[in-house]
Design goal:
It is a single chain. The chain is mostly helical. It has a single domain, classed as 5'-nuclease (Rossmann fold, 3-Layer(aba) Sandwich), CATH 3.40.50. The protein has 7 helices and 2 strands. α1 crosses α3, α3 packs antiparallel against α4 and α5 packs across α6. The radius of gyration is 14 Å and the shape is globular. The two termini are 16 Å apart. The mean pLDDT is 88.
C-alpha cells in the first residue's frame, strides 16, 4: 500500500529533488500488472488530492481522476481505525499517516511503502513498513 508521499511522486516526478523515480515506476508497474494488492485507508484519495492541489493546482483535478480510476480497494474496518488511533498516540504522529500503517498491519501480506522518512523512523520497529527508496526495482 502507498501513502500520499508516494502517490505524489508518481504524478509529479522531480518535485522534491529526491524522486526515487526507479522505485516509483517499478511499484506502479507492479500495481498495473496486478502483482500486488494496494488496500488503502478511507482518506487516501482526499489526502492525495490535497498534495496535488498544493503542488500542481492546474493539474490536480485530472491527476485525481486518474488515481480514482485505479479503483484501489478501501479498508474501513473498525479495528484499523482503533489501531491507527493507538499508533498516533504511541508514536506522537498524525492519524492520517498511522491509518496507512494500520491497514498494512491489518491486511495479511501487506507492506506500507512510504517516502515519509520521519514517520518511517518512528514506526519501523512495528514492521509492515518500508521506505520507498529501499523498494525493490522489479518493474
Amino acid at each position: 500500500m502507498i501513502d500520499a508521499s508516494v502517490a505524489g511522486k508518481w504524478a509529479l516526478p522531480g518535485q522534491d529533488g529526491e524522486t526515487h523515480q526507479e522505485q516509483v515506476l517499478g511499484l506502479l508497474t507492479d500495481i498495473q500488472q496486478g502483482k500486488c494488492q494496494v488496500p488503502q485507508p478511507p482518506h487516501w484519495l482526499a489526502e492525495v488530492g490535497a498534495v496535488f492541489t498544493q503542488l500542481a493546482p492546474q493539474q490536480s483535478i485530472s491527476m485525481l481522476q486518474t488515481f480514482l480510476a485505479m479503483e484501489l480497494p478501501i479498508t474501513t474496518e473498525w479495528n484499523v481505525y482503533e489501531q491507527a488511533c493507538r499508533l498516533a498516540g504511541e508514536l506522537n504522529h498524525h492519524l492520517f499517516d498511522t491509518l496507512y500503517h494500520a491497514v498494512a498491519l491489518h491486511v495479511p501480506d501487506t507492506l506500507f511503502i512510504t517516502a515519509d522518512t520521519q514517520y518511517f523512523r518512528k514506526a519501523a520497529k512495528l514492521g509492515h513498513i518500508i521506505e520507498l527508496k529501499t523498494f525493490p526495482q522489479t518493474g
